[in-house]
Design brief:
Strand content of chain A: 5-15%
Number of helices of chain A: 24
Largest interface: A-B, 122 and 122 residues
Radius of gyration of chain A: 30 Å
CATH architecture of the largest domain in chain A: 3-Layer(aba) Sandwich
CATH class of the largest domain in chain A: Alpha Beta
Distance between the termini of chain A: 81 Å
CATH topology of the largest domain in chain A: Rossmann fold
Oligomer: homodimer
Number of strands of chain A: 22
Chain lengths: 782, 782
């Protein structure tokens, strides 16, 4: 359907209204409809917001609305340039959604006044497309993730179209540059469509953008190389632009329909070439052309606030009035300030409004997973410390059945590591999705898979975030060291979750679950670059209301923790668990009890039943637990009368004071476990100071001595790794002796023996290499 | 020069020798030349290493060597697939460099035995292209940064060519996908050339790669879109591949010469279309074709160790012998195990060897910066706390002159933020480099600039790392919150530095200097997503030998710190400093003294000269310092008899125990500042627990109470930001009162007044918005 003159006038009116409302938010405290003279007191004391990108965002929104209505589309809108917050808010208000969600911001003059005033105003709303904005799953403050969020939202939502504006600034980021290839992972049968709109407005804060300054032919070549068919829309004259944009969108949606029809009805199996729109329009379009003698529209000077002195400078104030009047508000809003029918008519109804699309409030649609009882998948552990098993492999079997029983609402992401992390059982339930070429020797690759593997932690994280934000579930399995690649993305997701906690209209979404394996202690083959347990430190900086960290010591505890995580909502759960063969300690039932408590005394490994201890050996993490239990055994042999209590920590948050985290132990409980006056030797998976950070307020903290990773490592044996960091069993025994003055003298020969053991192991390892690992064959004795 | 038969046989022999040596490293403990029967004891107990990528790396190396000799090129080799460590080591040994650097690994049979044995062996060398490998500036364990390192190395090195192998796995990462655009920032006149070799071996660990599974036409389109002219080399038959590769390289280097000639002599100003080679060869090329009935060569199964049971499985052992024999070692090594002349002849001599190129050991070539005396650039500060200034703007003037006086060895990087961070004075000394289209309204953009701006923290960081690793100097200015985007890159660089500290042959390189500005407390306009001071926590996890953190409170201290950082080597220096107008405290000379100590009592802000205090107010960071000084003033007004000591911390590492960091204060010094028994209220720039982590071993730690960012924020006023996090002056006064029992009763009215002040400010802010900031007009009174 071509754009007739009536359509054009409707779309244009809607666009003008959105632009008017955007400018109003940036500048006005009062006098929203300019129905009286604009005086300095009407102007906000500090002008905040990003005008530059906003008219383009509004332009796309207006045109997408037309399409939604014309074709009854189910569409979401992801705004990469999230700085264009005023645009998102303006559209939600125009469509009525804003007033439905925030009753006090009514769709009339009083509401408009409040809408304007609250923007970037203390006690009001932030300047970006934050969680507070209905219809958004994407803040866009930190740039780079728009397209991955859009693809994530489209997965397993066959009827959904996700329109995604990618700014040309954002397009320079690494994550975004890689995201274009997401089209190799989108199944045209079971997934929805993503329509990227690459918005070239030419400038960032203070510089032109790369993609706007290469020839069109080169840009087209790039986008074709990424596997898209670009449709170009370019100009600045509104009427011509409206006609071009309408035609481009018609063309794009015809293609999308054809592609989906081909894949779904005609059985096409070729990877589709999806359409993509390149919209080249001036930065700060329709804003002031020139201010104080400098060009503004179409330059970086319109990035934020084109007129900066409106309160104090009469000429600026006059220009603002002229600018706002250029949208002809008298045609757009009635005497009550309500958008007139000919504006409102451009918006779809109900859940078809992009600002009200339920997918953008994923908790609304989210179903709980059907979780098979994990009891039955675990290892038989009749006695602690005797059986060997691979924790993640065991988990894999359960995940396979989770995958099997939850078609369309559960995905596993991994940067080419799912098999390496020994979760390959999931491939029995689902292929790895792959729309690119397949050759005969490929295994478990297919167009409809729900395991997603690409060598980009950014894509894994971004896809999963998009998937979760639209109400589905998933797990990101990752090498521990390289999850730092997405530190910043984690931060932003945690911030989003924190904000949504205070928004009752946003329904809880499934948690973001990390499984960090191939961890610091078992990168004995890759060495130093692959050893970094510091993601936990990054996570612990985020609010207690949204983060959880688990360190299950064996397979059955991993199962129990994973079950818990997949049931939870609105958290980030970080689970650290090894993939290598390791000792198993707890039966399924014991694992449930232990994980429910999150921390506990292991009486079987303690002497004297762990009562009234002389020393506490605490541990968190599979390798530290092994060394601790082995140290306890050595102590039992050498000093049978010594009362050693072994405490294992699964839920790291239990260490925090009760007032700082909902999982935190009350002081009495903490003291009952750790004592207030006995030495505590804590063997920890990560950097040791994290444990101090969690416990420094506890009584008896001065007795706590933590061993952990202290940035020593290389390609060597696993036991050499713990020795390099003084976390080995022998050193733990030395630590105990050193902290018990009454034992020290008597224990001197044993201490020397420990020193000798370490030297002997070091020498033996240097001589025989990885053959020298007999120490790890150790079993708990009976 | 086409490849004649003699060249072919030389290149092929060299390649076979490198492959032989690579396989030997992965498998053999002994019997390096297979001159006796291979027995299980000759085989390493654990087979580690990545064969898959190695023959391709060796192939490129052999051919580049030929070119270096033929054209007398000055070339470095960056191996993106750093997992192919055996290849890098093999080539360095073949060229003789390895034995020059490591005398005990001689270039003969004894040395070969040691070479093999040490690889991935405890006490030996890591499995990757680590810092221990001569000729490398790039580990390649964490993938994504090869091309940025290569471009960084080429900057300001007009005679250098950096050949850079990009694996098709790595090519899927975000940072790498963005790096291709580095060609828009490479000056053909003053910079060297980068020759990317995109190596499509088709597979990652367990999956095919995206770029290997799109049609050639699409791939070519993509690379052309990135602005390159791809030259394709594809196949598996060695002779044909040698001829193709030789021709491709001749073509590429002819083009590079033409481009450079055009730009340097003919004055061409068009952005050049640089050549790029696409090398499509089988993964695990020349290795076992099939093992145990499964195809191996040309599949992901050859990613690591194609024959995995060589010790125990006789058939595997036989296949290994066959495989190694296929390289015809008897033609390659003489009876002493020395590479024969016809192999050695393929290697260039001296510093022309890529393994010995001095640029790859940047400290060798590095010159100190000529630094103008920063005294003279500072602000006039006659009295503390009276003058207002913008710290980064002041720094900018000094940096301008640093830039001016150090052409070709100093760069400033920023993700489109150099102006926003108020460093724009540097643009008076250098343009922002820009090879893409320039339009009339552009300012400070030019083809020869040494300020680098792109909206990618990854590119800024990677370019700078490459620049530093080759011996030059620089500064990365970044929004504080978004430096988390490069957490993982920082980790890897810090690890590299730590390793080089133990390698006497690697000369110290200039430090990596971060200026984090637009920080958490002054993101009042962008809000919550832009507020994250957690990079400091990431940095503090790295070894004391390589990390430094500075929080200068004002302009003159920032100057002094910056001067110190730009003189230092082998560190990562993190400097956090605000760009907004702020109070100035110290004159230039006082700043020097204060920064030299790194921590000190501010007597002027203390009562009773800071002697024998009742309470210590400590602070680190500009905003916390302002609030602390203001709190001290309030306390002086309300309780003139109270002895308040104000301690300011510039160098965060001073807080650590002396045994844990070279900057750490001795316990006596610490106690002299903080006391052991008086309450310490510490106002900190970052997350508060970091201060506890640094000080938990100190006597009196239980009296320490830290205020900092606790993840509360939005778009609001600066003062509201500190109030939201209880860091404001009023709350600090409350904290003091709450911790002095003898004062508490008497102080109750004052405490209530503080509570009321906070409420009044909150209400006032909600009413008047950013106009309500009069509290920040506060000056230190006299």
């Amino acid at each position: 359907m071509a754009l007739d003159d009536n359509d054009l006038s409707v779309v244009d009116a809607y666009w003008r209204a959105a632009n008017y409302l955007s400018v109003g938010q940036i500048y006005l405290m009062d006098n929203p409809l300019l129905r009286r003279e604009l005086v300095p007191e009407d102007i906000k004391p500090r002008l905040l917001g990003h005008w530059g990108t906003t008219p383009g965002l509004n332009f796309c929104y207006a045109h997408l609305n037309r399409l939604i209505k014309a074709r009854d589309l189910n569409m979401m809108y992801v705004m990469g340039p999230g700085h264009g917050g005023p645009g998102a808010v303006a559209n939600a208000w125009l469509e009525g959604t804003y007033s439905e969600v925030y009753r006090d911001v009514s769709r009339d003059e009083a509401g408009m006044r409040r809408l304007f005033r609250q923007f970037s105003f203390p006690g009001g709303i932030p300047s970006h497309v934050s969680a507070e904005v209905p219809g958004s799953i994407h803040e866009g403050g930190e740039l780079g993730y728009a397209l991955t969020h859009a693809f994530g939202a489209a997965l397993d939502n066959p009827d959904l179209v996700v329109a995604c504006v990618v700014g040309d600034g954002e397009a320079e980021t690494g994550p975004l540059a890689a995201s274009w290839h997401s089209n190799k992972f989108l199944d045209p049968v079971h997934d929805g469509a993503v329509l990227p709109i690459l918005h070239l407005n030419g400038y960032k804060i203070a510089n032109p953008t790369v993609l706007a300054r290469i020839p069109d032919a080169e840009l087209v070549s790039l986008l074709e190389g990424y596997g898209y068919r670009p449709i170009l829309v370019s100009g600045s004259e509104p009427e011509l632009m409206h006609r071009q944009m309408a035609a481009a969108l018609e063309e794009a949606f015809d293609e999308i329909e054809q592609i989906q029809d081909g894949a779904r009805r005609r059985g096409d199996t070729e990877r589709p070439v999806w359409p993509l729109i390149v919209l080249r329009s001036p930065k700060g379009w329709t804003g002031p052309v020139e201010v104080d003698g400098e060009p503004v529209e179409g330059t970086w000077r319109s990035h934020q606030v084109p007129l900066s002195q409106v309160r104090s400078n009469e000429e600026h104030r006059r220009m603002l009035v002229e600018w706002m009047a250029s949208y002809r508000p008298e045609e757009l809003f009635d005497s009550e300030g309500v958008p007139v029918a000919s504006v409102r008519v451009n918006a779809p109804a109900g859940g078809r409004r992009m600002s009200a699309n339920p997918h953008a409030n994923g908790g609304l649609l989210s179903r709980d997973l059907v979780l098979p009882d994990f009891r039955g998948y675990g290892l038989e552990v009749a006695e602690p410390g005797r059986v060997v098993g691979e924790a993640t492999r065991v988990l894999g079997h359960w995940l396979r059945d989770v995958m099997h029983q939850n078609p369309g609402i559960f995905r596993v992401m991994g940067p080419d590591e799912t098999a390496s992390n020994r979760l390959s059982a999931v491939l029995e339930a689902s292929d790895k999705v792959w729309q690119a070429q397949v050759v005969e020797s490929d295994v478990h690759l297919g167009p409809h898979g729900r395991v997603m593997e690409v060598l980009s932690e950014h894509l894994c994280q971004g896809w999963l975030e998009g998937y979760l934000l639209t109400g589905r579930h998933g797990l990101f399995n990752c090498y521990e060291a390289f999850v730092h690649i997405v530190d910043a993305m984690f931060n932003q997701h945690a911030k989003w979750l924190k904000v949504t906690r205070d928004l009752s209209w946003r329904r809880p979404i499934p948690s973001l679950n990390y499984l960090l394996t191939s961890h610091v202690w078992r990168q004995d083959h890759n060495g130093f670059t692959h050893q970094d347990p510091g993601f936990l430190d990054v996570v612990m900086n985020k609010p207690a209301s949204v983060v959880r960290v688990y360190l299950p010591p064996d397979a059955n505890t991993l199962l129990s923790v994973a079950d818990h995580c997949l049931r939870s909502r609105d958290y980030v759960n970080v689970v650290v668990a090894g993939k290598q063969p390791g000792l198993q300690y707890l039966s399924e039932q014991e694992a449930v009890w232990h994980c429910t408590r999150g921390i506990g005394i292991w009486e079987w490994a303690s002497t004297g039943g762990g009562q009234d201890p002389d020393v506490v050996l605490a541990c968190a993490g599979d390798v530290p637990t092994l060394e601790t239990v082995a140290a306890a055994d050595l102590l039992r042999q050498y000093f049978p009368e010594l009362r050693v209590r072994v405490v294992n920590v699964v839920d790291l948050m239990r260490l925090l004071p009760a007032g700082e985290h909902p999982h935190g132990l009350a002081d009495g409980e903490y003291e009952a476990l750790f004592t207030t006056d006995k030495p505590v030797i804590f063997a920890f998976h990560g950097y040791p100071w994290l444990i101090h950070r969690l416990t420094y307020r506890r009584r008896g903290h001065e007795n706590l001595h933590v061993r952990g990773y202290k940035e020593e490592g290389t390609t060597t044996t696993p036991f050499d790794m713990v020795m390099l960091n003084d976390l080995d069993r022998f050193h733990l025994v030395m630590d105990v002796i050193d902290r018990l003055p009454w034992l020290r003298e008597r224990a001197a020969p044993v201490r020397q023996r420990m020193v000798d053991e370490r030297l002997a192991h070091r020498a033996h390892t240097r001589e025989f290499g990885q053959d020298a690992e007999s120490v790890r064959e150790w079993r708990w004795p009976y």
